[in-house]
Amino acid sequence: MTARPDRPGLPQAVCVMDPAIADQVLPAELRERLAALVRLAPDVPDGRAGFPAALAEAEILISGWGCPRLTADALAGAPRLRAVMHAAGSVKSLVSDAVWERGIVVSSAADANAGSVVAYTLALITLAARRTLSMAARYGDGWPGFGSRSGADGSTVGIVGASRIGRGVLAGLRRSGAGHRLLLSDPYVTDEEARRLGAERVEPAELCRRSAVVSVHAPLLPETTGLLDAGMLRLIPDGGVLINTARGAIVDTEALTRECASGRLEAYLDVTDPEPLPSGHPLLSLPNVLVTPHIAGAQGSEVRRLGQYAVAEVERWLAGEPLLGEVTHQALSHLA
After folding, report:
1. Is residue 154 part of a domain?
2. Both 16 and 38 in a single domain?
3. What Pfam families does the record tag this protein with (predicted)?
4. What are 112-160's pLDDT values in tens digits?
């Protein structure tokens, strides 16, 4: 649909994101919804070069992957900007302190992205609990007897981080009916809150020591960088599995490589440190490790969910309703 910037009385909005994904995130029907709410300016076709001009009259910015950072300098040329609706997950690389100093409202579609990561993680936990990679690697050595096969029911799963994704994974495991024993490690969660989530709250070391599967869902913060170091990984029982769909730097890559190269642990990694791993890295060829290229979040046609969420947030904001995905300055330090 053609953007219609010439409708007086409506606030002006502009979409700034990588042109390669803009039409997937905001297909024609979503732009029609937007056009009934705002004066939708043309998308910025040339990224950073057109960014200052695009913000000059905008009251609402619909951002996404590829949108330049909202620094004080960038905002100086955006005197009318009042709201940022981010049609993606984390806003940490997008916003600066200047955004809140200006009183600009920020919303993220992280909830829409979380569903995809939760579903992906639950699938990995099902595979992990069966030691799928190791069993597949031994397939050529002969058909395993039933006594040597691992089952998913009743295994202990440790969740590192009660983020929206971590909570979603806990809920999915409870619904699965597999009878998993669930552990949770998060410094901001009380014992009672953990119980409401269906888990037992423990410290990271105890979680590693007791879990057959450890799944990482914490944000990357100074205190979580390298959290799962060599010492922590050694605590995971022989035959244990590490899953990371959060941030690669939470796990010590060299230590994990050693544990997996020895055959002691299995790993399913959607994120790595560095990302991507260099060609020839051992984790890319070990039979008991699966490395995927950061695909747990919304992909392909799924990214439309992010646009739907952002457009719904525009509707709520214009109606004076609370934003479901609002990100506050205070909460930002604890978010992914």
Report:
1. yes
2. yes
3. 2-Hacid_dh, 2-Hacid_dh_C
4. 989 999 999 999 999 998 889 988 988 888 876 655 555 555 699 999 9
Domain that holds residue 54: 12-108+300-332
* 27/101 same-domain check: yes
CATH code of residue 273:
3.40.50.720
In this structure, the answer to whether residues 24 and 122 fall within a common structural domain is no
Residues labelled catalytic: 247, 275, 294
1 lies in a domain?
no
Q: Any residues with CB less than 8 A from the CB of 262 and at least 6 apart, and which? A: none
